[in-house]
Amino acid sequence: MSSVALPEPHAEPGTGKLGMWVFLASEVLFFGGLFLAYLYGRTHWPLGWAAASRHTDVVLGTVNTALLLTSSAVIALAVACEEDERQRRWTARLLALTAALGSAFLAIKGVEYHAEWREHLFPGPSFALDTPGAQEFFALYFVMTGLHGVHMIVGIAALAILAHGRRHERDWARADHIEIAALYWHFVDIVWIFLYPLLYLVQRHG
Amino acid sequence: MTTSTTTSYLDDGLTIRSWLTTTDHKRIAILYAIAITAFFFVGGAAATIIRLELATPQGDLVSNDAYNKLFTAHGVIMVWLFLIPSIPSVLGNFLLPLMIGAKDLAFPRLNLMSWYLYVAGGLVTLEALFLGGVDTGWTFYTPYSTMFSNTYVVLTLVGIFIVGFSSILTGLNFIVTIHTLRAPRMGWFKLPLFAWGMYATSLILVLATPVLAITVVLLVAERLFQIGIFDPAFGGDPLLFQHLFWFYSHPAVYVMILPAMGVVSEIIPCFARRPIFGYRSMAYAIMTIASVGFLVWGHHMFVSGQSLTASMVFSLLSFIVAIPSAIKVFNWTATLYKGSIRFDAPMLYALGFIGLFTIGGLTGLFLASLALDVHLTDTYFVVAHFHYIMVGGAVMAYFAGLHFWWPKVTGRMYPPTWARIAAVLVFIGFNLTFFPQFLLGAEGMPRRYHTYPPQFQVLNLFSSAGAGVLAIGYLLPLVYLAWSLRHGARAGDNPFGAKGLEWQTRSPPPTHNFDTPPNVPDIVYDYRVDEPDPAAEAVR
């Protein structure tokens, strides 16, 4: 029994994927603190939350949701193509497309931020709305979407590098690394799926 | 057994560059040990000045402001730069792969990166202290930390944020390693309890640290932009901060104590020559403490104005933590029963741990009782209680482990007599320092003031004198362990006749840990009393 070889670090199948899952568990708790703060604010200032939410740009928010959901579908395709010998030539292009959709999301988010800055929706002395709680809403809006944006930037960079490496047939642009990147990308997408209704759709009809 | 002629991980590259770019978990553990030791003595220096100031009732050594900065520096450094990384990052890093029969951790480069993050975060924190310090206390309560404190709050928080990343990456690495890199035939219930302790600790690091990270982000945003999350002046709620902070910081206590329990569970069976009593219940108890530990944070907030219902639930859950903790204490004691006990230095520290942890745990029940806590909160009783857990528990176990595995890590034996003297000094000094603080707290002396009424002076003098003894007890190992690196006796591969896989390889181990794959025994802790103990004489 002592002749059995020991497992090699890095060579064990599934090691990287498990690592990413553990990291994502950590990320859930990271955003969890923000969702707790959101829950607290919304129960304390339902009116302020509703009033402030009406000042978010629901059209751009919805377009962004569509972009991000599409990007998740595209990266799922990339993973599937990488697994199939005959479809492998698509992988790099699909990865690049995912990164492009992500970048479009960030560009639109930038347009939104710009408009909100002009309308004095950034918390501070000249904040535009006077309903109590509205400023807290926008504080959380910027922190939540901002941190989500930081995660997007990391994801876009990773996908761009992977797409480049895959096109030039680099060793490290392997199927398992693509899958790990896809896991991360889906997570960032899921965070947005929660952020979208919480930030854009509070009593929209009111 | 050609210990001296075959190369070890220590000979595998002798340049500083080879150390700073290593991905060998054993070398990274040494890097951690050096950095952590430095921070330990910086934090200890702050504590020394605090105890000197408190020798007299008047504030005659440092000003109010300086005192506030001193206890904040002591807390921040000891919690984040020493206690949390100490056993996991030093002993865990070195031993976990050896104990489960792995060649390294699952992600060796990530391991090195977490050391660099730790050092970077530590240096940022230190810089904040040298620029002028922070006076909020290590808890950074709002609104003082957001609105009033005119000190380097943001810079310190940035340092803590970076160190948090290092914690998460270490935890992640350990979890994946234990899942994927166990040697063939090393089942979950053959894992040494130290590995169980590391696993439970890692779960907490991965799941609690991010909550601290987001709290820090919000606190920095509040301080810079006054966004109104925590500060009531802008519509925020300070209680939200306390909930988020303690959701991390209470489990963080278990990050300090669970690895300590793991260390003690390795040492007690070895020096009593008995299998650990109730192995499975020990493993379950560790996991129970880790999970219930996530649900008790509100006991830090009994006087904060939270609802009585919440307080009662938090109180009940805090009492429940006592059950698995007591299981562990009883099992260690039962392991000693009819054992062939040897009082070597690691065992002295481990036995000290059991006594001090028990006192720390029982006084925790005082504080978990709602009515008593109203009287005792924010007094020296609390200070004494958590020092019994953190210093009497975690630091004792760290020193126990340091001595126990020193021969494995360095190939040299520490001077046994000096080590025993230091262990006894630490135990005496510790009790002299902190036991009077229980009495002071019960009499009503509040924490965090640099002056106090004259009737408290006698007990404070005991405490300050004890701190001096404790300081000598901590400096001694620094000297004789360093001495032993060059002059210590060659230890041999298994000087204590211990049964873990880490003792099957050479001392110090080769770069890839095992020359031949280790033999995983059928039962873990297979100690027998009647078995001849090959090493007993060599050590004596």
What does this structure look like?
The complex is a heterodimer of chains A (206) and B (540). By secondary structure, chain A is mostly helical. Chain A has a domain at 58-121 and 141-200: Four Helix Bundle (Hemerythrin (Met), subunit A) (Up-down Bundle). Chain A is built from six helices and no strands. In chain A, helix 1 (15-44) packs antiparallel against helix 5 and helix 5 (134-167) runs antiparallel to helix 6. The longest helix of chain A is centred in the C-terminal third of the chain and has 34 residues, at 134-167. With 540 residues, chain B is mostly helical. Chain B has a single domain (16-539), classed as Cytochrome C Oxidase, Chain A, CATH 1.20.210. Chain B is built from 16 helices and no strands. Chain B is globular. The relative contact order of chain B is 0.11. The model of chain B has no long low-confidence stretch (mean pLDDT 94). Classes of the chains: A mainly alpha (206), B mainly alpha (540). Chains A and B meet through helix 1 and helix 5 of A and helix 6, helix 7 and helix 8 of B.
Fold topology:
The complex is a heterodimer of chains A (206) and B (540).
Chain A: H1 15-44, H2 46-53, H3 58-83, H4 91-118, H5 134-167, H6 175-200
Helix pairs in contact in A: 1-2, 1-5, 1-6, 2-5, 3-4, 3-6, 4-5, 5-6
Chain B: H1 16-20, H2 25-53, H3 64-99, H4 108-131, H5 144-148, H6 153-180, H7 193-225, H8 238-272, H9 279-292, H10 308-336, H11 345-368, H12 370-376, H13 380-410, H14 416-443, H15 457-487, H16 536-539
Helix pairs in contact in B: 2-3, 2-4, 2-15, 3-4, 3-6, 3-7, 3-8, 3-13, 4-6, 6-7, 7-8, 7-9, 8-10, 8-11, 8-13, 9-10, 10-11, 11-13, 11-14, 13-14, 14-15
